[in-house]
Each structure stands twice: as C-alpha cells, then as structure tokens.
UniProtKB/TrEMBL annotation:
This is FBXW7. The keyword Repeat applies. InterPro entries: F-box-like_dom_sf, F-box_dom, WD40/YVTN_repeat-like_dom_sf, WD40_PAC1, WD40_repeat_CS, WD40_repeat_dom_sf, WD40_rpt. Residues 2-48 form the F-box domain. GO terms for cellular component: cytoplasm; nucleus. WD repeats lie at residues 176-215, 256-296, 337-376, 377-407, 416-455. Keywords: Repeat, WD repeat. The keyword Nucleotide-binding does not apply.
Amino acid sequence: MSDFTTYLPPELIDKVLSYLNVKEIGFFSQVSVNWREASNRDSVWLHHCMKNGWMKYGISGSILHEEPSAKPTTNISGTSPHFDLYGEYLNEEPSAKPTTNVSGTSPHFNLYGEYLNEEPSAKPTTNVSGTSPHFDLYVPFDTRLSPICKWKHVYLRMYHLTRNWEKGRFFVSPTLRGHSQRVTAIDSNGTCLVSGSEDKTLVTWNMLTGSKIYTVHCHSDAVTAIKIQGHHIITGCADSAVRVFRIDNGDLEFSLFGHSGSVDHLGVSDHDYIISAGSDRTVRVWSSSERKLLRMFHAHTDEIECMHCCGHMILTCSWDKLMVLYHVENDNPIQVLEGHSEAVSCCQFDEYKVVSGSADSDLRIWETSSGYCTHVLEGHTGEVYCLVYNKHVIASGASDSTIRIWSHSGECQYVLTGHLGIVRCLYINDHRLVSGGDQKKIGIWNFKTGKLMNMVHRCPSLLHLMWVGETKIVTASPESTGTITIINFW
C-alpha cells in the first residue's frame, strides 16, 4: 500500500490531520518517519494551541524561553513539576520499550509522538520526591527526525505547565530573607521581583535563582507601593514621595513630591503617566517624561482604599463609601458611583463595566459610561476583601472564608469553600483562579466547574500579599521579619 503522505500536497495532509485529536496525532506520528514529519508542522499544532487558548505564548515566545528555577533542597509538595520527553513525569515510569521500530529510532512513544534513543538524565539528589523540578525536552543530535516545530513545542510546554497547576506539581524555593521588618509591597515582571518594607528598603531579587540583586536605601520611611513599568521601578513611600529607579541597577532617576501623606497606591497609563493616590485623599497624575505634576483630584472625604487603572481611566474606592472615575487628561472626575452602605474595599473595571466589593458584604456591577448600577450581587456573609474578573466570570473573596463565582449578569454560580479565615487575594486568567488566604492556604481552582484542583497546604508562611505569573506564585508574609515565598510550577 502506498504512503499517502508522499503524494498528497501538504494542505490536504493538514486537512486530514485536522480531524484528529492530539493523542491520535501521536499514534499517527509513530507509524513511520514520513508520518512523523507530516505531523510535525506548525499548521497542525497551531490549531490545537488555539483551541486551548495558548496562542499568546507562541506569539510572545516567553514560554519557549522560560528557564527552570534553581533546584530546591526540599520539595514541599512531595511531587515535582518535571516533564520528560515522554510527556509523563519521571516518577511515573514508562512501560517497557519494544526492540524494533520502523522509524529507525527508539520506539517508545509518548502522547505527542516523540521518541527516545537513550534514557533521561540522572535524577538530582536534592529533591525528596526523587525527581527533577524542570522541563527537559531532550532531542538527540544524531536523529534523522526534524526538530520539533515551534507550535508543537508551545503545545508541549503549555500542556506540561497546565498539568503542573492542575495536579499540584510544584516546589517551594528557599525563603527570601532580605528585610528586617514586614514586607508591605511587591511587584514582578516575571524574571525580576521587587519588594518594599517597613524597614525603608527596596530589594530586587532574581526570580530564577532566588538571589538578591541589590538593595536600595534611599527611602526615609516605609515603602508602601511598588509598580514595575518597563525598565523602571516606581515606588510610593510613607514619606509622601513617588520615586522612579532604573530596574537594572537601582539608580534613582527622579522623585516626585506633592502628597502630604503616605503614597499608598500606584498605577501607570500610556507609558508616560504615573498615577498616585495617598492618605491625603488625593489622586495625582504625573508626567514621567516631564517629571512634573499634571493634575490633582480631591474627590474623596475619607482615605482611599483601592485604585485601579485601565487605559486612560482611573477608578478609586474609599472609606467614604464612594467610587470615583477619572480620566488622566480631564481636570474633573467623570463619574461618582454611590450605592454601597459601607467602605468600598476592592474594584476592577474596563471600558464597559465596573465591579466593586464592599464591607457591606455586597458586590455591585456598574456601567462605566453612565455610572448606573445594573446588578447587586448578594450572598457573602462577611466583608468582601478582593475581587477579580475575566471574560467568563467574576470571583470574589470575603471574610466569611468563601469565594463566590458569579456570572456577569449577577448570578452566583458556585460557592468555593476550603479556606480558613479571610480570603485576602485573588488572581484569575483564562485557565485558572488562584486564591490566597489565612492559615497559609493557597487554592488553585477551575472557575468553570467550581472544582478545587489543588490546595497548597504547605506554604511555609502566612500571606497578606500575592503575585501570580504563568509559572510562579509569590507571597509576602505579614509578619516581622518580612519574608517572601516563591512557589514554582515550572
């Protein structure tokens, strides 16, 4: 029987393969070298990356260059996120390999149709689970197979990463200790972590190695807010100043003075505007290029609890029970949103909607353009501490120890339980919801089904701040001395 891949044009072969799922493509590719080559095409794997919402990782290329973090001395989870070429984990042994293979390479087949002609490298001795914590896609140099195509490589890595999040395969890096008092602010760009503390210092860390890069000592009071923007670090301080540093060496470029109290919230808009809100109840818009104040808003009568920026718009929430919407180029507020009966503690917005949470236990959905409240979301029995939303759902965390998943029309879909004490932090993307709360608990949830995928019970410290990236969770402890924990899923 003739081999159809030798006479059909590539477009028709791609059409045939488009009817197969990933596992079936794997079986297809183990038949022969020709069939493996036919399936190792970007046009085949791009489709599967699109189905899983992984397009952005191939476009940015970040996942293709993501390096594993330094190997830990212990593995807190008792498992490991290491992925071998088989698409399996090293503590799950592959079945015995047959002795012949028509492709001329080692016959062992994984989910993706890749082969090995030698064993994986030796397992490290520093991981108590007996596995290695990093992704290692080994391809022998002397194979006659072509290199793995870009979008197949993206699929391999994202499948591995997604499984790590779902199954709780992680390790905890050694605790970062660089502050003598409580950590009050953190931010990261994925490779560099910046932390500020009540000890008046700013510390920059290498997230890959967990090592300290440098410490900045120029603040005269506690560092209260941090924002990384491009090649710069912006800080807010209890001494009323906004400062801008170079991220590569920590040199101070300039300072902005004008607030009469602590600068508690920071934001950026359009790469030139720096937005600050302080205990003096004012919101200020600064030009980073001109290094001067452009405009000031004084719309609140009590302290500002939360600030969120979107495009050229700014939203602030306050203890005065109000939310105020501003535009960076307008001298007066655009909208004042009034309806909560207690302090407004958290918010998020875009050009269409505003979602707010309050100490009155309710969430509210508002129209951004009119300021009209369209829905009141009732259900929590304690103060709402945090909220996030994406295109699918709204998630809120409260002092009643629950997380509620809401539709954008205001219906409660799920009540997630498992936390003890206050749910303090939430993060959401298109694939998962991450929650952080009291008693050192961090939850990884499937927000579409309301199911808990895994609970990170063994986080070594309490948390009051959390940053989540594609491969890591960073938490800061509220205790003195201030410590930072990095949990690695790669």
